[in-house]
Each structure stands twice: as structure tokens, then as C-alpha cells.
């Protein structure tokens, strides 16, 4: 392969296949809300299946019936669809990735015992890391203009994230985690996961790669794709649980993202080997900068775009095929759980599964869901204090054999200290730079006195605790910043998360 660096000029088309456009508007959300029925439940023990079915309030309507119903709807019905109130179980599910739902059998046994910490190993998985540049400037523009309100900012953020998330779901991806203005997506299918991820990236760069907002701020995309082994870690306390991906694939996708400029798609050599034979309107461009040749890791810059007429028609066909397959599995699952729930459910087990699902959500989010309040009320420009913790880990003292236990130990200590000082641990990531934890002080329902003072005291306690009790940590670095930040639920109604976006967060991460 030629190692020279070159660029491709491509004139993208603007045609969207009408059938695909209709599917995007009408079916994607409902289909995705029921994704657990076909993907998760068959892997669980029969009694646990019934518990999860009841907890998530999954109906018996097939996806084919949903498609038929939606095909009869007009555009006005689509608009009214957004006002629907979904069952609490489905709203909770929307905040949890499939890869977690699919591993419920690793987290709870038939007796209802919660098995945390736990982990699941994937030999091969495809990761797509998507970073949006411009969101920080967007939030500042809205916060500095007295004529612009939080409702307009929320609408702009979610209209953009809605498109990104819905396309990833349409290409059979799974939104693993939102990290501020970034998204980590997963394709667990070894057969064509890399192909689906790459086609999704091409479409997103063409349609969303340069998006001008109503205040003149242009949002750009940086996309990285990697393929390889991954370990899914499940950690946490009785009150709050979390999920983290670790492994070579996570490190590779992070390296690729660091090489990205806005508008780029960069893939690893492992991805390239899987997609090199595909006939796409693009060109592979080898990159030599900052590549670890000892590990034979070669990033490939990707330029171009998909042909809408050709590609999205095929996606529509695949979606119809997928609906038929899901319908068949639904019939099997409905047969397995056809008896009345009250006849077979152990109330204690039901409550434990219900609590397990809820424990993956922040308390302020679940309280709104339980009260059947719109999550839009959580969206606000709020003055908060952010603490970013980065841990450099000793590879000699922290091996693959004790990784999960060590992450659990660190998570619990940071969580408990942060909680004691009135903050909340919101995110945890394991990248090549070490382990990163994001804590926020001043969120609704957690505020306690002087948030800035509490955050500084908490940072000091965490720093001291890490050095004394975690000998596998070589270095603990903590940054604290306070300021006006966007806090709210972003994403798609089928997959969303509570996150914080703002310059203070970016500043403290860089520090």
C-alpha cells in the first residue's frame, strides 16, 4: 500500500431515498425501543426473562405491525408521535446501551443476586468514536446572548444529536456512551460490523459533517473507527452502577481520534483489512505520523461519501429483513412468556431487576422518569464545578487478571468521596492515557453548600486516598474548574444520556 499522503476530491449528492427518509422519521425510534426483545432476552434464564419483560414493559406488537401502522400515517402523525409518553421501563432502557442489556445475565443470577463487579470479553468488536467540534462555542453563544433561550439551545443540540444517533442505530450500531459532545458507538457483530460502521461514518460526514446552526456556529465531525478485542466492565455500588470498555480496540480508536481533524474519518489497519474490498466512492489514504510501527498499527484516512440512491436503498432492504427476523424472535419469546406475569414472578427478583436497571441512571434523571416529567426540564445552562481525575496506571501492578477489581476499587472510592461532598461521579473512561473520571458538583438534586469549595476539598481527599490505598496507581492528576455549563439529556428518544457540555469541561480535561 502506498505510504504517501494524498487527498481525494469528491462531490457528494444531496438525494435521500424517499423510503429511507420515511423510515428514519417513523420507524426507527419504535423499532429501537424494542431492540431488547430480540437481542437481549433469549440469552437469559427463563425466569429472569419474564422479570425483564415485565420490568421493561415490552409489548407484543411486532416490528412488522409497527412498520405497517407507520406506513399509513401522514407527516402530521409523525409530529404528534414526538409527544407520546413511553412506559417507564422503555424510558429507562433508552439510557442504557444494548451491550449492557445483553449482559444482564452476567449481572444478576436466577436468585436475584447482583454480580458486581463483572466483565464480559469480546474477541472482536468495532468501535466508532465521534467527536463534535463547535458545541462549546455554541453553548457560549447562547449563554452570552440575552435574546437566545435554553429552549433554543436544547432544540439545536438535540436536533443534531438526534440525526447522529438515529443514523448509528439505523446502521445497526449501539450507542455505548455519550461523553459531552462526543459519542462512542459499538458494533458487536463480527460478521459485518466494520462495514456497517464505515458506511455509517461516510454518511454522517456527508450529511452532518458541516452543519451550520441558527447562530452561525458550524458543527464539524471527527470520526475514528477501530476493530479488535474489548472487555466490557460492569462496576459500581448498590446505589449507582457504571459500565466501561477496556482493551486494545479502545486504545486504537483513541489514537485514531487524536489524529483526526474536523471532517476526517480515520480507521485502523485492522478495519482497513475488512473493508478494502468494498466498492465505495472513496479512497484510502495512508498516514505515517505518530503511528506505532512496532505494533503494526496503521491508520488510514478516509475521504468521500456514499451514494445515497445506491446505499440507502440497500439499508432499507436490510431494515425490512431485520424486521422480519425480529418478528420471528418476538413470536418465540412471546410464546416463552405467554403466561401471566403474576403467576410466575418472584416479587423480590422483580424488584431487584427493576433496581438494577435504574441504578445505571443518575438519580436526577430517573426521578424525572418516575414522575413522568419531561426530561427537557433537566436541560439548563447551569453554573457547576467540574472535577476531572486522571490516573496513570502501572502495567506491572495492574494486569488483565485484576483489572476489573482494581477499577471497581477506584470507582467506589471516588464515588463515595464525591457523594460525601455533594457531588456526583458521572462518567468513567479507560483510554491509553490512563483511567479518567468526571465528577460534577452543583447538579440538581445533589447541590450541597459551596460547590467550588466542596470540589476542591474532594479533590484533595481523592488525591490522598489514591496514593495511600491504590498502589497500582503511578500518578494521580486532578483538575477543578467552575463556570456556566450546559447540563441536560442529549441524543435520540431511543438512546439518550444526561451529559455536561461547555468550555470549562474542555479546559479542565486539557489541564
Automatic annotation (TrEMBL):
User: Which portions of the sequence form the region Disordered?
Assistant: 63-84
Metal-binding listed as a keyword = no
Keywords from the UniProt entry: ATP-binding, Lyase, Nucleotide-binding
Q: Which GO terms describe its cellular component?
A: cytoplasm
Biological processes per GO annotation: cyclic nucleotide biosynthetic process; intracellular signal transduction
Q: Which residue windows does the record flag with biased composition (Acidic residues)?
A: 65-84
Every Guanylate cyclase domain range: 126-257
Any idea which GO molecular function terms this record carries?
A: adenylate cyclase activity; ATP binding
The cross-references to InterPro entries, in alphabetical order and at most eight, read: A/G_cyclase, Nucleotide_cyclase
Q: Does the keyword ATP-binding apply?
A: yes
Protein name (Swiss-Prot/TrEMBL) = Guanylate cyclase domain-containing protein
Classification from the root reads: Eukaryota, Metazoa, Spiralia, Gnathifera, Rotifera
